[in-house]
Amino acid sequence: MQAQYIGASAIVLDVLWRFWPVWVALLIVMGASFLYKKKLALYGQLFDSGVGIAGVFICLFWLFTAIFASTISPFDPLGQIPIMKDTLPGAIEPQSGLVYLFGGDKLARDVFSRMVYGSQIVLIIAPAATGFALMVGITLGLPAGYYGGKIDSILSFLANLVLAFPVILLFYLLVTPGIMDTPIPYGLAGVFFLFPIIFFSVLFWTRYKNRPDRIYILLGLTLIIGGWIYVGLVFDRDPLKIVHIDPNQLNIFVAVVFASSPGVFRIVRGLVMDIKTRDYVAAAQTRGESPWYIMLWEILPNARGPLIVDACLRIGYTTILLGTLGYFGLGLAPESPDWGTAIKDASRLLRSFIHPALPPTIALMSFVLGLNLLADSLREQSMKD
Amino acid sequence: MFSFIIRRIGTILLTMLCLTLVVFFLVNLEPNLKKLAISQTEMHTSAEQLESWLVNHGYRQNFFVRYGQWLGIVPKQPITDPATGKTTQRFSFCNDPAVPTFSGVIEGDFGCSTKFKTTVAAKLFPALGATGILMFWVLAVMVPVSLLIGILAGMREGSRTDRVLSVASIASTATPEYVSGVIFTVVFASWLGWLNGSAASASQGITFYNFTLPVITLAIYGIGYIARMTRASMVEVMTQQYIRTARLKGLSFKSVVVKHALRNALIAPFTVIMLQFPWLLTGVVIVEVMFRYQGFGYTLVEAAGNNDIDLLLGCSLVSVFIVLITQLISDVGYAFLNPRIRVQ
User: Fold this and answer.
1) Of all helices (H) and strands (E), which one includes residue B309?
2) Contact A161 B285 (CB under 8 A)
3) pLDDT under 70 in chain A at which residues?
4) Which of A152, A323, A331, B62 is 20 to 30 A removed from A20 (C-alpha atoms)?
5) Chain B contacts of A169, Cβ < 8 Å?
6) Which residues contact A328 (CB under 8 A, 6 or more apart)?
7) Which of A161, A179, A354 sits opposite B15 (nearest CB)?
8) Quick one: pLDDT at residue A370?
9) E strands of chain A, at which residues?
10) Secondary structure E strands in chain B
11) If you average pLDDT over residues B273-300, what whole number do you get?
């Protein structure tokens, strides 16, 4: 049976219509940001330039797409409807009457729904992995830059060791299926996921150690929440069964954090070495503050500008890394709808069909572009003051 | 200066030693050895036969002994038949010694590729040559284009040209190789039919038809980054006093840019281009797999996919060497180009 098709303009209109929750949410957030932009400090200043608005718009677009994925996508991203195999964009699925807006792939799945659901995977793993990489990089970079000497030499050597590894080789070694049988990914996860807990504990301890009313609450909260997430992620033994991560995804997560934390380390180390010569650091030293207080409460807040810019760029870079992993079929499940895997599947068949390849490539490119534009405009704004 | 280079080379050797040890550890994990044994023996072999293959071929010796053998400080042992005491070569297809000999990386023997049934040297060096050609063309496209974009954008900061080119370079940094590769193939190969979507035939002879797509795919990701660095450097130089002096002397804008600004603005991009090599290495792997070009990246993927231990170690040695040596060149070269900087 030949599939029925709808025209090109109908496809465009239908795609725009399917994204309606995103448009509504965008309208609310962007409108509110415009109204109150004077009060929103750095975020508000983004709305002064076209580049900044474009960056915020694209990033929010994908954020809301990930949130409302189940409403937007008409089909199940893994569901196969045999009659729709390799159909061109705009084919009507006879049973439900819904449209395969961007056509079907070689396994007869809806390309549009897969692209929408792919955003969920990317928008969860990329920012979270970047967050952990930041924690690791900051916690190690602060003492390396502040103390210098032996600590610095050892940590810098280790960071350079990881940086000298070509990323792709690292991934092939760390994300092979066999490695899940060994304790290595769990060991690495155990080490990396410890850093946020250490970071926040030290952060609160240095500030409030003489104020028992606050310190016990804050430390207790850090340890309980941190420990809960830690047990859930590393051992998969969350007593409440809320925090859970697939062994596959844990492996990817660890590999990405491992690959990007040395970069953060180097930036933080450089910033600290620059900032520690400032007068306010000398003043804190004269007051007799402890070294970790100075690092966390005097130096770190003053290094936030470049770090925020770097975090934006790094989320984009992590997205690219995730795509690379998907492209080489490492780690993620073969039927997973993430963009890298979709690009891999489609690029093998480019000679016969091009339509399954374009949506994931354009999605990935636009998301990274949005983050880069955001970073660029943040850098511009922070240079102004 | 001399002692600086000696010290750096010492660090490089130490780094290579540590990294190969890590790679050696990872490829010798139990699941990986199992995978190797399964791919090297006939179908449906029993677990005991797999184990005896591993023992026979020396994969069950002490970890550090085997690393020493690969390195060349412990003699490599041939297979000894326990019944007769006769010795045979470990891998006949690459002339392994039949008597215990020191034959490792230090002696210039990179070992034996189990996947390609030949010596690592015979596989790796031709592949490196092929990648070298690719790299040459990539650099020949990437460097002039990115410098030109950077200079044009940085010449007049804030102008319309500047803004357009800046956004274009941001867009190019947001396009990883597997994205641009797909888009270029769709446009130039499937749609327009101008270029070939596969570079498999490039091993026989490079033509514009089969080699353009891999080259531009690989170049585009780097162009944006280098152009942005060049722009930043150019913008900084254009605010210097000597540029103002030259302008006030009445020189034309063109000659100020060409004669006074360019030379000073090109020092920073040199470092950036050198530090771009580690990124290019990842790109090479993606592009060679995508366009089926038989070079270093293709070899690396094959080696990693089949857990070809010696070949993978050879690949990591080469890539780590490239990364570190380009860093050294960038540091030393920077000091040469900019006399205000002293290396120590």
Assistant:
1) helix B309-337
2) no
3) 1-3, 385
4) A323
5) 23, 300, 304, 315-316, 319
6) A168, A171, A172, A344, B289, B301
7) A161
8) 92
9) 4-5, 91-92, 99-100
10) 79-80, 87-88, 112-113, 118-119
11) 86
Report the gap between the CA of A217 and the closest CA in chain B (Å).
Answer: 42
Estimate the share of chain A in helix, then strand, then coil, as percent rounded to the nearest 5.
Answer: 75, 0, 25
Per the CB < 8 A criterion, the answer to whether B104 and B71 are in contact is: yes
Burial class (CB in 10 A: 0-12, 13-18, 19+), B111: buried
Give pLDDT tens digits for A248-260: 888 888 889 998 9
| Closest chain A residue to the Cα of B179, Cα to Cα | A361
* C-alpha–C-alpha distance, residues A264 and B271, integer Å: 20
Nearest to A173 among B26, B170, B319 (CB): B26
CB contact under 8 A, A169 and B316: yes
Looking at per-residue pLDDT, the higher value among B210 and A275 belongs to: A275
List A110's β-bridge partners, or say none: A104
Q: What is the DSSP string of A108-174?
A: --BHHHHHHHHHHHHHHHHHHHHHHHHHHHHHHHHHHHHH-HHHHHHHHHHHHHHHHS-HHHHHHHH
Output the pTM of the full model.
Answer: 0.87
Residue B185 and residue A347: Cβ atoms within 8 Å?
yes
| Chain A residues 13-72 within an 8 A CB cutoff of chain B | 51
* A327–chain B Cβ distance below 8 A for any pair: yes
Q: Where are the beta strands (DSSP E) in A21-96?
A: 91-92
User: Residue B82: pLDDT band by 50, 70, 90 thresholds?
Assistant: low
Q: Which amino acid does the sequence have at A190?
A: G
Q: A178: distance to nearest CA of chain B, Å?
A: 5
Strand A91-92 relative to strand B118-119, pairing: unpaired
